[in-house]
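[Discussion] Sanity-checking designs against the backbone

I'm trying to build intuition for which residues belong where. Below is a structure token string of 218 positions. I'd appreciate it if someone posts a full sequence so I can compare it with mine line by line.
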């Protein structure tokens, strides 16, 4: 199992009820899973816990055989850098870097040697081959999201986590960007866990889990 989250509990200070109340899920390499649910159901919190960005009160998360419980901050950051590709609703591109530099940013940060053709090949897969020298402000929203996807995929992570990655895009661009994400993760045999409000997107994944009031709805 690539990812195993077992009976995760999370409570925020001042809240009467836990935001996550015994949530469990598993994900195999090459598998896609959609997390759906109303706003406030705990979807993004669970994603951030799996990424090691958020602590949790009880349960266990294991990624590629490594348990997050008891793991030092530096070790969690290293795991995130080398094994996890993260895609957010906000693109989080670096304004001072062009497309080619943004695409290779995480891979270089992880200490990988990135040949120029790697960025070029990824840009071609993303339909960005004519934009490598452009800066984020010169791109459309859909193009920026494609760069964010490429940046997450270029280091060849085992696990891709996507939090509402098409939330700011129109329908046509959403379809194109999500098809690209599915195709590229499949080619890399990476696990994909996506948080989405879209039933249309969720229907394209292998499985769907619906969260309601901090629990998996059955």
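Best answer:
Here's mine. Compare freely.
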């Amino acid at each position: 199992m690539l990812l195993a989250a077992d009976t995760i509990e999370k409570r925020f200070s001042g809240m009467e009820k836990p935001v996550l109340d015994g949530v469990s899920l598993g994900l195999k390499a090459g598998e896609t899973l959609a997390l759906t649910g109303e706003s406030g159901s705990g979807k993004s919190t669970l994603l951030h816990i799996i990424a090691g960005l958020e602590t949790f009160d009880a349960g266990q998360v294991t990624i590629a055989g490594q348990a997050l419980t008891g793991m030092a901050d530096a070790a969690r950051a290293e795991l995130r850098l080398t094994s996890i590709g993260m895609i957010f609703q906000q693109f989080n591109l670096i304004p001072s870097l062009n497309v080619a530099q943004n695409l290779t940013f995480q891979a270089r940060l992880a200490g990988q040697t990135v040949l120029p053709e790697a960025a070029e090949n990824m840009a071609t897969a993303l339909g960005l081959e004519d934009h490598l020298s452009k800066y984020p402000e010169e791109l459309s929203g859909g193009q920026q999201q494609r760069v964010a996807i490429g940046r997450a995929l270029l280091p060849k992570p085992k696990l891709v986590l996507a939090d509402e990655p098409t939330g700011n895009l129109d329908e046509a661009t959403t379809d194109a960007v999500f098809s690209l994400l599915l195709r590229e993760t499949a080619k890399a045999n990476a696990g994909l866990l996506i948080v989405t409000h879209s039933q249309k997107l969720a229907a394209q994944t292998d499985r769907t889990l619906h969260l309601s009031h901090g629990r998996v709805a059955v």
